Amino acid sequence: MKELRLMKGNEALAEAAIRCGCDAYFGYPITPQSEVLEYLSNEAEKRTGMVVLQAESEVASINMVYGAAGTGKKVMTSSSSPGMSLMQEGISYIACAELPCLLVNVMRGGPGLGTIQPSQGDYFQTVKGGGHGDYKLIVLAPSTVQELVDFVDESFKLAFKYKNPVMILSDGALGQMMEKVELPEQKERENIEYDWATTGKPKNKDRRVITSLHIEPDKMEEINIHLQKKYKTIEENELRYEKIMCDDADYIITAFGLVARIATKAAEMAREKGIKVGVIRPITLFPFPTKVISEAANNIQGILDVEMNAGQMVEDVKIAVAGKVPVEFYGRMGGVVPTPDEILEALEKKLVGELA
Amino acid sequence: MNEKNMIDEERHYSQVIEEESVCTAENIVYEKPSVLLDTPMHYCPGCGHGVAHRLIAEVIEELGIQNETIGVAPVGCSVFAYNYLDIDMTEAAHGRASAVATGIKRVFPDKYVFSYQGDGDLAAIGTGETIHTCNRGENILVVFINNGIYGMTGGQMAPTTLPGMKSTTSPFGRDTQTMGAPIKMTELIANLPGTYYVTRQAVNTPVNVRKAKKAIMNGFKYQTLKKGLSFVEIVSNCPSNWKMTPRDANKWMEDNMFPFYPLGDIKTPNKEN
Amino acid sequence: MAKVKGDILIDIEKCKGCELCIDACPQGSLEKSRKVNNKGYLFIVKIEDNCTGCTNCALVCPEGAITVYRKVDKEKKQVAKITNVTSDITVTVNE
């Protein structure tokens, strides 16, 4: 039975993890995501027998995820920006070894220890790699607590479909704010034996080895080619985005996550003033809606990209637009959330005023 | 088929098998376990890794747990352990084997899980993971190969390098004033309540090999008790990076390593529990 | 006249000539060959016909290259049986 509840983003995410039949969570406390670990510690084991373990560091927790994911179980971790930086090595190993798992980054302002306030400063880290080598995560950027919930089950499906780590890129505001959510029904934890999973060598079958080590350059290149092919397939099949008021728009704001909601408000305010503004919100950051933005750029005057960082996704927007129309950027950093007024002002100043 | 044909003559062409040969299947008293694959090992001549691998394979075979065992080997010379052991294995990042093993054991508490780590891995880059895995009392076996040097990267100083011992990064000998003293990881983790069985062994002589096998056997058996972590250190050699012949290396190990890292049980279920 | 007859077979392609088995052999049966194997190692060969099949060489062999055989002449009457306490070897002495 579906259930309506008023929940904090982090807790809703944890609840969704229990309900989707997640087998294990390994994590380490860090503000503003500690509620995930706290909520799971309190609820998970008694309800579904899910393993919840507080590791000694993010480095350890991502490696526990690596080990457990290798057995074919549904495994996840969550952290916030500085912790995610520590996890990058492990994520690179997981991506190369092609293991499914769910990672959640409740982003906070950086660089360094930074602040505990919300930020989108980890776009590059998440979308462009983060760790060493050529690999990609499937990245989902929720903009509501409801999406945080819905994306958990969705992420596991994608992770197992492509044997690839999936990242939910949340932020401190989304993690801490309370919204009404519709929770899915409790799913049974599954016990699927995958032929690639290390669960003990089956009799009369070959042993399974999970590794990211391929000393022979030809073999390593082969692995890379295979990964790139897989990422291409993901790009073709798994693109998700949202177009809001774009049909008659003269200007488009591109934004992801929470900022897309603020941008939508700014677009509505602009329309009250007679400026036709739409919003394109990439829901998957990888794959990125390059074509969608490129096509949209054919019929508009300009794009304003808004982020809670110094301008990261804007680079991908510019690649998509390829100089067809001006692409401007407005961002706040260090944990400051932009207001709709600021966004509207930036739009008027940087695009509407300039082009008039 | 006569007895001669039972022997793979090509592999043993230099040895003349006489008519009254005892080299027949029914007379075999020792052969390589089948869990140890036929792939020639990449280890240098005389390296203790080979014996340690074989003992693990023998134990897995004798206990009949090949289909229930998952091994973890991290970065170091033994990173290719999965090429030699016919079991499911995961290769871990440098230092993280015990965390990876924790992840596996937690989702499969009834399987046999072991990590196989060198001194740089276990006692330098992975110290945190080692201590906390021991402290949580994960029901796994940790096999710790201590040869006091970094083998894979070419002979740099390890956390367990002896005082005064030369390496490529302590070319004038380890100066404990500036480089610290060697860490006795095994004594250190024996103090943690999470460890159930802690022992230090070697594989240089037939007697020591038998003892080491017994220790590894215990480490696997104790996992079913769910009473904590088993830790088997194997003091080993590194002829290549010690720049000695294998025979000299073993002699050097007996004269220098064993006094500093004395062999024997440090914590046994009978004594401590 | 030894009543326990042992023998070994060395997989000379696996052997790296480390010589640890030479030290382990109580009978002095082993020596380094003057030939090299395909990897270029001087492998180990049995030079004496006095092997008792004690398995010591195989135990210390890092390559798992040695298989040990032992045959006890059962036709003769057994007068004593000694079990080595440090190992699982049973040495049977015949008349």
Chart the SSEs and their pairings:
The complex is a heterotrimer of chains A (356), B (273) and C (95).
Chain A (H helix, E strand, L loop, with lengths): L2 E6 H11 L4 E4 L6 H15 L2 E4 L3 H12 L5 E5 L1 H17 L3 E7 L15 H5 L10 E3 L4 H18 L2 E7 H5 L1 E6 L25 E2 L6 H21 L3 E4 L6 E4 L3 H15 L4 E6 L1 E3 L3 H7 L5 E6 L5 H9 L5 E5 L8 H16 L1
Parallel strand pairs in A: 2-3, 2-4, 4-5, 5-7, 6-7, 11-12, 11-14, 14-15
Antiparallel strand pairs in A: 1-8, 6-13, 10-12
Helix pairs in contact in A: 1-2, 1-6, 3-4, 9-12, 10-11
Chain B lengths: L27 E3 L17 H16 L5 E5 L14 E4 L5 H11 L4 E7 H7 L1 H10 L4 E6 L2 E2 L5 E2 L18 H4 L5 H6 L4 E8 L3 H16 L7 E7 L3 H4 L3 H15 L3 E4 L1 H4 L1
Parallel strand pairs in B: 2-3, 2-4, 4-5, 5-9, 8-9
Antiparallel strand pairs in B: 6-7, 8-10
Chain C lengths: L3 E7 L9 H5 L5 E7 L5 E5 L9 H5 L5 E7 L5 E6 L6 E5 L1
Antiparallel strand pairs in C: 1-4, 2-3, 5-6
Span between termini of chain B = 56 Å
User: What's the mean pLDDT score of chain C?
Assistant: 85
Overall geometry of chain B: globular
Supply Rg of chain B: 19 Å
What is the N-to-C succession of helices and strands of chain C?
EHEEHEEE
What general form of chain C does the structure show? elongated
Radius of gyration of chain C, in angstroms, nearest whole number: 15 Å
Assembly type of the chains comes to heterotrimer
- At the fourth level of CATH, the homologous superfamily of chain B is Thiamin diphosphate (ThDP)-binding fold, Pyr/PP domains
- Spatial strand arrangement across the major sheet of chain C: 1-4
Low-confidence stretches of chain B: 1-14
Total domains of chain B, how many?
1
Could you give the order of strands across the largest sheet of chain B? 3-2-4-5-9-8-10
Q: What would you call the structural class of chain C?
A: mainly beta
Query: Percent of residues of chain B in beta strands?
Result: 15-25%
Which band does the percent of strand residues of chain C land in? 35-45%
Number of domains of chain C: 1
Low-pLDDT parts of chain C are none
Helix count of chain B equals: 10
How many strand segments of chain C? 6
